Amino acid sequence: MTSGDGESTSMEEERMNEMIRQTLAASRRPPEPPLDAMWLQIEERVFGDAKPRLVLHTRASRWLIPTLAAAAALVFGVGLGWYAAPRTVVTRVVASPAAATPATQQVASEDATPSSTEAPNNVASTIQSRENARIQNAHSVTTPDSRDLAAARLASQFNDAGGGSEMSRYLAQTAVLLASLPSDRAAAESDTAVATRAGELLTQTHLLLDSKAGSDPTLHRLLEDLELVLAQVARLRGQRNGTDLQLIHQTLTAHDVLPRVHDATIEASITD
Amino acid sequence: MSEAHLIARVLEGDRLAGRELYDAHASRVYRLAYRMTCDEDMARECTQDTFIRAFSRLNGFRQEAAFGTWIHRIAVSVVLQALRSQRRRSARFVDMDEAREVAAGDDGHDAELASRLERAVDELPEMYRTPLIMHDLEGYTHAAIADALSIAEGTSKTRVAHARAKLRDTLTALRDQ
Q1: Distance (Å, rounded) from C-alpha A145 to C-alpha A103?
Q2: Fewest CB atoms less than 10 Å from the CB: which of A107, A116, A142, B32?
């Protein structure tokens, strides 16, 4: 016998299929959808709301407070991360002898630190060194800002035909890093290597956010979440307290970061 | 008013048009989300996420497919993502077992049957479970499933048939006990 789907089945199988279907339909019967309550949330998120209405879910309220705490800590990390990122770009680009002019080499040598992620430890000196570089730049470089050129050059790598594979590589490397995050009890010495790598990936994240590849809304949101997490990881330098890693893991969980990276990696590899 | 017109109005920021589109599709999206998650809170969150994503991507909706098809594609993606990230399966088993016991009353056999079948469905790999639920419980056509899951229509049929065979094995094993 052939069912409506073209599936060959016996009478007995058909009877069993129907019994299974009825049993599952009864046990998985959906309740009445809370249409108005769901719409309030959607309306507020999509259209904004002059009179904010707080319709908190019991489940949402459970993780809201720790998430807000994590977000507050991560916002701080992002601020520091933004300080660090552009200097890494300049350092890398002028490292190529062919591309570097004496002027830009001078700027880079003034501005460069051993690692971009070390900058958060000394914000004051970072600002001072940036000011020095800016003054040097104003005197010695007459072409457009070399930082912008460097950033544009790197960003273009993500916008050309090979952007998909760059994105795949970036996502894969980020997934590996996040998966290898030390547990709370792990030795803090391993933090330095992880933090350095996170700083490098943070720079790539900034470039991707500004690139055409990052214009997709879903990808953009993921990159923003990764930016938060990587900025926090980049601050792990062997002097973390017990809550640092906990906050990172909470953020990873609350924002479903790893499954989303996984999905994005698959999508990026498909578009390669 | 046509859906194309509603979409144009939503893009202009008309929330009433948004509500109209929502009313046309929300119940079905919620039902699918609930069938796939067996969890009211998750179904609600997934439905909200689906519409938030859909409205925020409305600019990119080319109207080559119907809005309903498009939003169900988003819904399936949102639900699968939620299921993967929220490892609540064991909790759901407990909740559902309790719910079924209450619903079945004294009929222990029906409760056991439902419970075993539910477990069997949850234990199916995602690639088989989703088409089965969409087709057999929510009445989606194989064409719609194929579109939502980005697979061929024939693949959808094969997966549903495979899932049914697995569930029949469960049922047979239960009868033989």
Answers
A1: 12
A2: A142
